Amino acid sequence: MDQWEVHPQVNEGETRTLLLMRHGPTQWNLEHRYNSRTDISLVLGESPNLAMHASVIKKFDVKRIISSPAKRAVETANFVREVQEFLPNRCNVWPELHEVDFGNFEGNTKIELKKSDLAPQYENWMNSDKTAAIPPSGESWDSVLSRINATFQRVQSLDENLILVSHGYFIRCLVSFAVGVRPSKGVRMISTENYGLFRLKFSAGSKPKLASPLIV
C-alpha cells in the first residue's frame, strides 16, 4: 500500500494548496503523553496565537476547513474559522483524519513506557521502520497508509484550496508520503509543534507534493 492510488473519477486540473495544521495544545501534549483516541479538549484558557497564521492562510485563498473528529482538532478548526472570516460558518469533519492509534501506549510518556512492562514492545515500535511492529492493540502502518490515500483522494475530489486540522503523527505521515518517505520512517524524521503548518500542493490525478518546509 505504499503506492499512490489515483482517483479514477478526477481529471487533471490546476494546482491547489493544501495546508496541514496540527491542533492546539492539550494537557497531555504539555506532559508529553501519547494521545490518540482519548478525546480531550484544548488546555483551559489556552487560545491559539493565530495572528501569525492569518496572513499565511489568507494569501492562499482557502475555501474550506476540515477537521479530525477529535475535540482538540475541532476546537482548533473553530478558532481558525473565527479568525478567518472568509471561511464557512462550520468546519467539515473527516473520520480518517484521526490520530495514529497508539494502543496500550496511550496516556504514557516515553520515559514511563521505557520503564514499564511495555518497554520491549515500545522499543520495537520506535524502530518500526525496520520491524513493522505496531503498538499492542494499536494501529498498523498499513491502516495508516489506507487513511492517507483516502484523505488525499477526498482532497482531490474537492479541487479547491483547503486546510486540514489533524494530529502530530498523522500530519507527519501525510507529509512523509508526499515526499516519498515511508510514514513509519518519516514520523521519526519530521516534527511539528501545536498549531504548526505544512503546505502541500496538488492537482487532480497527481500525488500531493510538499510546496514548502514547515512554514509557521
Explain the overall architecture.
With 216 residues, the protein is of the alpha/beta class. 37% of the residues lie in helices and 13% in strands. The chain contains nine helices and six strands; from the N terminus they run βααβαβααααβααββ. It has helices at residues 27-30, 51-59, 71-83, 110-114, 119-126, 128-131, 141-158, 168-178, 183-189, and strands spanning 16-22, 64-67, 92-93, 162-166, 197-202, 209-212. A six-stranded mixed sheet has the order 3-2-4-1-5-6, sandwiched between helices. Helix 3 (71-83) links the parallel strand 2 (64-67) and strand 3. Helix 8 crosses helix 9.
Spell the H/E element sequence: EHHEHEHHHHEHHEE
How confident is the prediction overall: mean pLDDT? 85
Provide the spatial order of strands within the biggest beta sheet.
Answer: 3-2-4-1-5-6
| Count of individual helical segments | 9
Shape: globular
